[in-house]
Design a protein that fits this description.
Blueprint (H helix, E strand, L loop, with lengths): L4 E3 L4 E3 L10 H5 L7 E5 L3 H7 L5 E4 L3 H4 L11 H13 L5 E5 L9 H15 L3 E3 L7 H9 L4 E6 L5 H4 L9 H16 L4 E5 L3 H10 L4 E4 L7 E4 L1 H4 L16 H17 L15
Parallel strand pairs: 3-4, 3-10, 4-5, 5-6, 6-7, 7-8, 8-9, 9-10
Antiparallel strand pairs: 1-2
Bound molecules: 3-methyl-2-oxobutanoic acid.
The site of 3-methyl-2-oxobutanoic acid (KIV) has 10 residues, from loops.
Length: 285
């Protein structure tokens, strides 16, 4: 595996094996059934730099509402937030395809509204794709965007923007009616031209069936290893939150380490053992 260093002066991972040659929509479509696609969320340039060499897709998820802004759900997230964070993630990466979530209220009214706002996201951020919820109900909109050159990722299952209608964040597909609806949504989204289908919080059997049914790669989050790839919220994966859903595996215990570092810093300040000589400016002698 290649080793990358980070060039913080240009905000790019460096050295680039093929400068600015990002993974593309066709190359990701071609990964169906092959090496699983690794996708993580990113909201800032520095985190994008760190994740980029290891990921195929960086998703600027509207989960930034809760993770960055402390909001109670994704519902209040605005287009301005998504554009600002999307641009930062594009500046901090060169390798992964960057996709940006369309926030609640920015695409549901009509295909035209969706096109205007998706075009704004791509123009202002430099990202290559958008992601929008809605399943079958959004199939016409997805086809409209795809026909006009806007690559779309479609999530189905536990779709957080529908929290008020779903009544919470419990996993989906426990009964036959829910199973049938998720499969119908998956087919509609894929047939409309989505290049990736995200299966979120669904039973393993449904993920397995959907992955066999649709032509595009499926990306699971709480949807088992049956999918063609996986996505997690990076802060969940790093262990920054005490409580995480069952499907999250913590690959680190970052919250503890941040707390320990902050305690060590505060202790050093109070003991006057920081700053030390090495951190003090003095005139050249
Ligand atoms: O907003 C988000 O971060 C997402 C992922 C969890 C898939 O949609």
């Amino acid at each position: 595996m290649s080793t990358y260093t980070l060039d913080t002066s240009t905000s790019r991972a460096n050295p680039t094996p093929a400068p600015m040659r990002r993974l593309t929509v066709p190359s990701l479509k071609g990964m169906k059934g092959g090496t699983p696609i690794a996708m993580l969320t990113a909201y800032t340039a520095r985190m994008a730099q760190l994740l980029d060499p290891h990921c195929d897709v960086l998703l600027v998820g509207d989960s930034l509402g809760q993770v960055i802004y402390g909001l109670p759900s994704t519902i209040p997230v605005t287009l301005e937030m998504m554009c600002a964070h999307g641009a930062a993630v594009v500046r901090g990466s060169y390798h992964a395809l960057v996709a940006v979530d369309m926030p609640f209220g920015s695409y549901e009214a009509s295909p035209q509204q969706a096109f205007e706002n998706a075009a704004r996201i791509l123009k202002e951020t430099g990202a290559a794709a958008v992601k929008l919820e809605g399943g079958e109900a959004m199939a016409e909109t997805i086809a409209f965007l795809v026909a006009r050159g806007i690559p779309v990722i479609g999530p189905v299952g536990l779709t957080p923007q529908a929290v008020n209608a779903l009544g919470g964040y419990r996993a989906r597909g426990r009964d036959e009616a829910e199973r049938a609806k998720i499969i119908a949504d998956a087919k509609a989204v894929a047939d409309a031209g989505a290049f990736l289908l995200v299966l979120e919080g669904v039973m393993e059997e449904i993920a397995d069936e959907a992955t066999r049914l649709v032509a595009c790669p499926t990306i699971g989050i709480g949807a088992s290893a049956s999918c063609d790839g996986q996505v997690l919220v990076t802060e969940d994966m790093l262990g920054l939150f005490e409580r995480t859903p069952r499907f999250v595996k913590r690959f680190d215990d970052f919250a503890t380490r941040v707390g320990e570092a902050a305690a060590a810093y505060a202790g050093a300040v109070r003991a006057r053992s920081f700053p030390e000589d090495a951190q003090v400016y003095r005139p050249a002698s």
